[in-house]
Specification:
The complex is a heterodimer of chains A (621) and B (345).
Chain A lengths: L3 E3 L13 E9 L4 H14 L3 E7 L14 E9 L12 E4 L2 H7 L8 E5 L5 H6 L16 E5 L1 H9 L6 H5 L2 H12 L5 H10 L4 H20 L19 E7 H16 L3 E5 L6 H7 L7 E5 L3 H13 L3 E6 L1 H6 L1 H10 L3 E7 L16 H6 L9 E3 L3 H18 L2 E7 H5 L1 E5 L46 E3 L14 H16 L8 E3 L4 E8 L3 H13 L4 E6 L1 E3 L5 H6 L1 E8 L4 H10 L3 E5 L8 H12 L1
Parallel strand pairs in A: 2-5, 5-6, 6-7, 9-10, 9-11, 11-12, 12-14, 13-14, 18-19, 18-21, 21-22
Antiparallel strand pairs in A: 1-7, 2-4, 3-4, 8-15, 13-20, 17-19
Chain B lengths: L28 H16 L6 E5 L14 E4 L5 H11 L4 E7 H7 L1 H10 L3 E7 L34 H7 L4 E6 L5 H10 L3 E7 L11 H4 L4 H4 E4 L6 E2 L4 E6 L4 E6 L18 H9 L7 E8 L5 H13 L6 H5 L4 E5 L2 E3 L1
Parallel strand pairs in B: 1-2, 1-3, 3-4, 4-6, 5-6, 7-11
Antiparallel strand pairs in B: 5-11, 8-9, 9-10, 12-13
Helix pairs in contact in B: 1-6, 2-4, 3-4, 5-9
The chains are: A alpha/beta (621), B alpha/beta (345).
Chain lengths: 621, 345
């Protein structure tokens, strides 16, 4: 058993652990790091910590073993105070092979702890990771603390009594590692043991082997008399309101919010989707919810997915479609038809890095222009953006509400980070949500039936085919005022274009609130979507230092809240951090003539808190 | 068309006409098809409010505006996708898709294929005029080799798609052919409507402006008997007033034409049309006009369970015994309760 602990040579080592700890599990795609991270997350929840996670996995399904591009990582930030991001730099890096070490160690906090599976640092794996010498031995990791363990061998030893084959035995490595992590952070093992027994209920040997590996990892921490880095560290629970909590990913938040929205509207839901990363998870979730009056349809392509959803809306269901940037681009023409025929529709865009195929598994916020402006003709459409998994639930309900109350397609923006990340979520009480039941037109109203007649909100009536007496035709050719007949007349097109614009402009959205800080002052940091976490933490820290800075986070991207212009003008300076090259910034400048300054990042990784702090410092001068 | 949904209704041709001015070119074959459909609907006996015409883009796709039913004029090539969502939202509706050779086989070929493969219960009328009319005369995917057009001034070089063969290849359970001015067209429409599942009808349609009389070689009234083979279930495949017929060359495994002497078609080996024979259907859709007469009528009709019925069945089965308790669903997964003394499972 080769175990060694090496301290940094110089005496400047920072204590890496404090109230909040960032741990990153990294290994080969086949090493089960996402599962390890998920279970460690549950353990954090049960320890009462607040947390945020960030799964970071390759685009390849099973990349060749041991390669740099095949590394899969899971980062969790947990702590005893409010946690809004998955953390900037990890305090602890668990590296299951050389490639995982190489791709992840640069982000590790100075003085942070590396736990490396020495057993995987053989010549073959070192070569695959393009290491010329073994980094565990050559001193190149001197600025961190290094703990070398032969996790592979230790796992094999632990599971020996169960007679598993070599390959199967090694697959328990992640549970050994999880056991060690549980010990490090003073966690209860029992919920994980229960989970393993339930997961492998049909294969008791595998269950027993995994439990043995978990226990062995835990025991290793407990019994190994180690100097240096491997110390047990207890993180106190974060204050949380009493109630029922669960972990929630953004994809779950969207799926559940859509179902809730459909129920509040008293409509059956039709979901037309086509597989695309990272949006597919929403289709997967909804396809299991048949008892909630949900019909899911995997269409032949993105275009058919949205067209089928529009067809279903025409038939009286809540049509929903979902995709990511490239798929949203394909749906553009159909969105125009939904705008022209004024049918309700929710389009979910789980944004990823672009353009073209871009970075399928990495996150970006670069589809804001596409959402607000990306259609032919004057084609206004409401846009709502979710900031977190829990917020995705609320935003999905809001998107449904706007769609049915104004008879319009609505785009709901989320991103790869929100879709995959998990956070603790206080399960809401559905009875506190106000229902907005749809009323279909079923009889000829007084004054005659006008398919394009309008109410005070400029909404046209929704008539289900099958309704006697209200037969009419709709389509994409310009509609005549009131009658909906084909009409190309110049005055009619002007009037209809104006109505479509006025209807969307007139959508009532809540006034913009200041998340942190005050109205007016030296600096506002204005964000949207998943940048909420790093902006919030950075503003909080700067305010604690006495700086005059506030955080404004916009949910309603289009139409913008009525008070937003005045609010932005109440600050001396405005900066807009975005994971794009400045899209919301452009909209704000255009709408309000404010000198909004961009802060941009398009590396496929979320902003770190430090990056936003630096931007605040620069803006304050 | 679904049995449970057949809302019997006595109507007349007038009940199916809208007040909209028809905007096709004078002499266009679409007029004849519109009249045939409007004439057929009362005979089918469904209710206008239960009927939806869904179209894409092109001359043919203006069709819904002229039918006093529900109608959705959608976007180019995508009518099958709209129809699929609509039918899944309300399986009781009687859906007719109106498309053309460009709309249904070029830009929308993918959707046509999948609609047929899934076997959504609907009627698909593909108006084949072998040209792009509404965009002013470019050659289409069914244009014959050498078609000169604004985009092919030296003649088209690519080989045309064969709509009926395409449909059968995609898995169609009903394939029929007719042409705009044919008196038989209503019968073909009725048969399509009677078929449960995706019923594909290729309707040859004369574009009087850009591809005039391109089907005259078989559609012209004079000599029609010699050039048209109207297929009838259970009847021998005879044409030319019973003097010629279609037989199988058993050695070469293809069809051949034979002379029938003194009406003794059996002696000549003429095949009796069996609409459920898929092998023969494959040969009929591939039968080249010229060497053979044009095969018209119901070429193939052998129903299978429909897509929407299977979806509804599966949805019901999956929901069986489960309560739609959303509050309960929110509580599923990795949960814990925070109490005064801390979190617990």
């Amino acid at each position: 058993m080769a175990t060694a602990v090496e301290d940094r040579a110089d005496g400047e080592r920072q204590s890496p652990l404090s109230d909040a700890v960032v741990v990153r599990f990294a290994g080969d795609s086949g090493d089960g790091m996402q599962l390890t991270g998920g279970q460690f997350t549950l353990s954090s929840a049960l320890a009462g910590n607040d947390f945020a996670t960030f799964p970071d996995f390759p685009a390849e399904i099973r990349a060749p073993q041991g390669t740099l591009f095949g590394v899969s990582a899971f980062q969790i930030n947990f702590g005893s105070s409010a946690i809004d991001t998955a953390g900037d730099a990890p305090d602890v890096l668990v590296a299951m092979n050389p490639a995982a070490l190489k791709t992840n160690v640069p982000q590790l906090k100075q003085g942070g702890l590396i736990i490396a599976d020495e057993g995987e640092f053989n010549d073959r794996n070192l070569a695959k990771a393009k290491y010329e010498a073994n980094p565990l031995d050559d001193g190149s990791l001197a600025k961190w603390q290094l703990l070398k363990l032969n996790i592979s061998q230790l796992t094999m030893d632990a599971v020996k009594p169960f007679g598993l084959g070599n390959k199967e035995a090694l697959r328990c490595k992640n549970m050994w590692t999880l056991g060690l992590a549980l010990w490090m952070f003073d966690r209860d093992r029992q919920p994980l043991i229960d989970w393993l027994n339930a997961k492998f209920a049909k294969a008791p040997d595998l269950a027993a082997a995994n439990v043995a590996a978990l226990n062995a990892g835990h025991a290793y921490g407990e019994t190994a008399e180690l100097a240096g880095p491997l110390k047990q560290h207890h993180v106190d629970p974060a204050p949380a309101a009493p109630g029922l909590y669960r972990t929630l990913t953004g994809a779950e938040g969207i799926a559940l919010g859509l179902v809730a929205g459909a129920q509040l509207a008293k409509l059956p839901m039709f979901f037309g989707g086509y597989p695309i990363t990272p949006a597919s998870a929403i289709l997967h979730h909804l396809s299991r919810l048949k008892e909630y009056d949900v019909t899911t349809f995997q269409a032949e392509d993105e275009i058919a997915a949205i067209c089928s959803a529009i067809g279903a809306s025409y038939g009286g269901s809540l049509g929903v479609t979902s995709s990511s940037g490239p798929g949203i681009a394909l749906k553009g023409e159909a969105m125009g038809l939904a705008i022209m025929t004024e049918l309700p529709l929710v389009i979910v865009n789980s944004q990823r890095g672009g353009p073209s195929t871009g970075l399928p598994t990495k996150t970006e916020q670069s589809d804001l222009y596409q959402a607000v402006y990306g259609r032919n003709g004057d084609a206004p459409m409401p846009v709502v953006a979710a900031r977190s998994p829990g917020d995705a639930f609320e935003c999905a309900i809001e998107a449904v509400r706007i769609a049915v109350q104004y008879m319009t397609p609505v785009m709901l923006l989320t991103d790869g980070y929100i879709a995959n990340a998990a956070e603790p979520w206080a399960v809401p009480d559905l009875t506190t949500y106000e229902a907005f039941p749809v009323e279909f037109l079923t009889e000829v109203p007084e004054g005659g039936f006008k398919p394009y007649g309008r109410d005070e909100k400029l909404k046209r009536p929704w008539v289900k085919p099958g309704t006697p007496g209200l037969l009419h035709r709709i389509g994409g050719i310009e509609k005549e005022l009131d009658t909906g007949h084909i009409n190309y007349a110049p005055g009619n097109h002007q009037a209809m274009t104006d109505i479509r614009k006025d209807k969307i402009d007139g959508i009532k959205v809540p006034d913009q609130v200041v998340e942190l800080g005050a109205e007016g002052g030296k600096l506002a940091v204005v964000g949207w979507g998943s940048t909420f976490g790093p902006i919030h933490q950075a503003v909080r820290r700067k305010r604690a230092e006495g700086e005059d800075v506030s955080h404004v986070h916009i949910r309603h991207i289009w139409p913008l809240p009525a008070n937003l212009g005045a609010l932005l003008k109440s600050y001396d300076r405005v900066i807009v951090p975005e994971m794009n090259t400045g899209q919301l910034k452009t909209v704000l400048r255009d709408q309000y003539l404010v000198d909004a300054k961009p802060v941009n990042k398009v590396s496929g990784q979320p902003f770190t808190i430090a990056e936003i702090e630096a931007a605040i410092e620069e803006a304050l001068g | 068309m679904n049995e449970m949904t057949t809302i019997a209704r006595t109507t007349t041709l007038k009940d199916w006409e809208t007040d909209q001015e028809v905007r096709w070119c004078p002499g266009c074959g679409d007029y004849a098809i519109l009249k045939a459909v409007q004439r057929t609907m009362p005979e089918i006996g469904t209710a206008p409010e239960n009927t939806v015409f869904v179209s894409g883009i092109g001359c043919s796709s203006r069709f819904p505006y002229y039918m006093e039913t529900y109608g959705f004029h959608t976007i180019h090539g995508r009518a099958p996708a709209f129809a699929t969502g609509l039918k899944l939202a309300n399986p009781d509706l009687d859906i007719w898709i109106v498309t053309g050779d460009g709309d249904g086989l070029s830009i929308g070929g993918n959707h046509t294929m999948h609609l047929i493969r899934r076997n959504l219960d609907c009627q698909i009328m593909l108006f084949n005029n072998e040209i792009y009319g509404l965009t002013k005369g470019q050659y289409s995917p069914t244009s014959r080799v050498g078609t000169t057009s604004p985009s092919t001034p030296y003649g088209s070089v690519d080989r045309p798609a064969q709509p009926a063969a395409f449909a059968l290849g995609a898995g169609a359970r009903f394939v029929a052919r007719g042409f705009d001015v044919s008196k038989e067209l209503p019968n073909v429409l009725k048969a399509a409507h009677a078929h449960k599942g995706a019923a594909f009808i290729e309707i040859f349609q004369n574009c009087i402006v850009y591809n005039k009389d391109v089907f005259e070689d078989f559609a012209a009234p004079k000599g029609a008997e010699d050039r048209q083979l109207w297929l009838k279930q259970g009847e021998p495949m005879l044409y030319a007033k019973g003097t010629r017929g279609i037989a199988l060359d058993a050695e070469a495994l293809h069809l051949k034409t034979v002379d029938v002497v003194d009406g003794d078609w059996e002696a000549a080996g003429v095949i009796v049309h069996d609409v459920t024979n898929r092998s023969v259907a494959h040969m009929l859709v591939e039968m080249r006009f010229g060497e053979f007469p044009m095969a018209l009528g119901v070429l193939y009709d052998d129903p299978r369970p429909t897509f929407e019925a299977d979806v509804v069945r599966q949805n019901k089965a999956a929901a069986e015994g489960k309560k739609a308790d959303l509050q309960g669903l929110l509580k599923k997964g990795q949960t814990w309760t925070v109490t005064e003394s801390g979190p617990e499972l």
